[in-house]
Structures are given as C-alpha cells and as structure tokens.
Design a protein that fits this description.
Blueprint lengths: L1 E6 L7 H15 L3 E6 L26 H10 L3 E7 L7 H13 L8 E7 L4 H14 L12 E3 L3 H4 L3 H26 L18
Parallel strand pairs: 1-2, 1-3, 3-4, 4-5
Length: 206
C-alpha cells in the first residue's frame, strides 16, 4: 500500500514538509509506504477550463507536475495534501495544481484523503476547508486526526514545540493506514467498491 503526500509549500524543507514527514513516519510504523512530492517554487498555471482533458484523464498542458502527480495517483491508495498559510487559504501554486489535477483525473474516487495546514498563527481552518472541497467533489473519504488537521509554528523549531499538533499529524498517519488497510481487506474478502452512477449535471438558468 502506498500513500502520496503533496507538499504545497514553495519551501521544500519548511514547516509543511516537516509536518508531512511526521505523517510519513506514522504511516511507515503501520507498514504503509509513502512518497512526498514537492510543488516547490515552480509556477503552475491554473486551469483554463478548455475541456481537452475530458475522457483522457490527463491535463492537456503536459510537462508539468500535474500529470506527474496524476501518474503517481494511479498506483496510490491514499492522498494527503499539505499547505502553509500565507493569506488565509492554500498557496496559489497548490490551488492551481489541484484545480487541474481534479479536473483532469479519475484516479481519486473512494481513495482516502486528508488535508493539513501549517501557519504561524491563523488562516488554517479555511485552508483545510478549501482542500477538503476537492476531496468531496470526487468522492474521496476524508481521513480525520484527533483534532483540527493543523500545526502551529513560524519555523520548524517552533512547530516541533506544538505537541498537540504533532500528535494530530501522527494520528492522521495512523488513521490513513487503518483506512487504506480496511479498503484493501474488504476487496480481498469480496466486498467490491460501490459502482459510480453517471454524473448528473444540472443548470438552473433557463
């Protein structure tokens, strides 16, 4: 079993990465492998709603991290997305990545997912809420911690003093491991995933 972790920070070795490392260690203790992908400082263009990805499950604008992540998700059983907070929401680059990923991909349905946020002070609740909306729109079960999925600190040194936040990160890892194992065990005992109905799309403008 494998879980993909996305570091939505431009800093590859900042607070968000440190938080994801705690989760990765917790997953490893439960014998679940993980990989951390860094969004980094590369600019990711936002979705333009061209529809060229329809039926292809890959973004038409190739050569970026978007399709790389979609390829990795093919063989992953779960997804965890982390973001620092700059202005009360996920980073702009991460949001652009997620818009294109979830518009193009079909690799997400019924795979457990979790969002985490790191910050010096505030804005983490709306950040987690925004990321969770992506999961909800494609039918991903949301993995809880034991409190809000967030950890405080301006630096890694400060963050590591947030013992409650660290415990929350550990718990997310354990809960994710439990959930992916339950799904896998269910498949092996003949419990198939529910069939997806054809999506009904409505407009209320007549």
């Amino acid at each position: 079993m494998q879980v993909l972790l996305i570091n939505g920070s431009p800093n590859e070795d900042g607070c968000t990465y440190a938080a994801l490392r705690i989760i990765a260690k917790s997953l490893a203790e439960e014998n679940v492998a993980s990989e951390i992908v860094h969004v980094g400082k590369n600019c990711v263009m936002g979705c333009i709603g061209c529809g060229a990805c329809s039926g292809k499950h890959r973004c038409a604008f190739d050569g970026s991290i978007v399709n790389e992540v979609l390829d990795k998700m093919e063989n992953c059983d779960g997804l965890i997305i982390g973001s620092p907070v700059y202005f009360a929401s996920p980073t702009g680059t991460l949001t652009s990545l997620l818009d294109r990923m979830f518009m193009a991909g079909n690799q997400f349905r019924l795979k457990p997912a979790a969002a985490i946020a790191t910050a010096r002070r505030g804005g983490m609740t709306p950040t987690v809420d925004v990321i969770n909306k992506y999961f909800e729109c494609v039918g991903m079960p949301i993995v809880p911690g034991n409190y809000y999925n967030m950890i405080f600190g301006r630096t890694q040194e400060e963050m590591l003093q947030d013992l409650e936040g660290i415990q929350t990160m550990r718990t997310i890892g354990k809960n994710m491991a439990w959930m992916v194992k339950c799904i896998e065990n269910g498949k092996q005992t003949g419990i198939s995933l529910p069939e997806a109905e054809k999506k009904i799309k409505m407009t209320f403008i007549r």
